[in-house]
């Protein structure tokens, strides 16, 4: 079983959504398990959230696993506001602060 890892830094927003979607879909195609490190994310908008949700749905549909890890305070704020922790199914643990 192959495991991949991607770290997303900076903004997870509409301006980066298309590139991040392509990145995550490519990494999912190469991995049975993909960990997405969100510790460096400084901002999340609805487009960025949709990219993460699409990646999670794609993984489920293809019997792969997508794990979100190292949630930054910005990610935690959005997940808590929208009550998405259970939907994603990952432990909501704050990652190390980005330098």
UniProtKB/TrEMBL annotation:
CDD domains in the cross-refs: STAS_anti-anti-sigma_factors
InterPro entries: MlaB-like_STAS (IPR058548), MlaB_ABC_Transporter (IPR052746), STAS_dom (IPR002645), STAS_dom_sf (IPR036513)
Source organism: Pseudoduganella rivuli
Coiled coil: none
Domain named STAS: residues: 6-99
Family annotation (PANTHER family): BLR2341 PROTEIN
Protein's name according to its UniProt entry: STAS domain-containing protein
